[in-house]
Amino acid sequence: MKIHMRVHTGEKPYACSKCPYRASQANQDKFGRGETIDKRHQCSQCPYSTKYYGHWKSHLLSHIGARPFKCFFCPAKFSQKGNMKTHMRVHTGEKPYACPKCPYRAIQSIQLKRHLLQHEHQEENSMDAV
Questions:
Q1: Domain count, the chain
Q2: Tell me: the pLDDT tens digits for 36-56?
Q3: Which residues form the C2H2-type domain (predicted)?
Q4: Which of 7, 78, 93, 125 has the most CB atoms less than 10 A away?
Q5: Residue 18 domain flag
Q6: Is residue 105 part of a domain?
């Protein structure tokens, strides 16, 4: 109950030794500015390592070939949920990335970035012609 009351009082008695971060619980003192300190999750099969447990867990799926995320429209399967969501846009027609210079819309942000390079090249060419 005392620890829970700290939520209401704002009391944070535990200080990080590496930065100004303070925590209300003792086990939180290893975190500072949203990052873990000296905590790495290392893949046992390759050199990959990360400080984020979720990224490490997703990475492990790549080694065993697991693809638990299935497309609702076709037989495609994916190891990461985000990749499945992006793929689903092919079927739904969703194009959330809009070009600010023309009506072009894209399924992925990288497609829009490539498209914007075309505008830059056109602008450079039109300036050279002047």
A1: 1
A2: 445 688 888 888 888 888 888
A3: 41-68, 69-96
A4: 78
A5: no
A6: yes
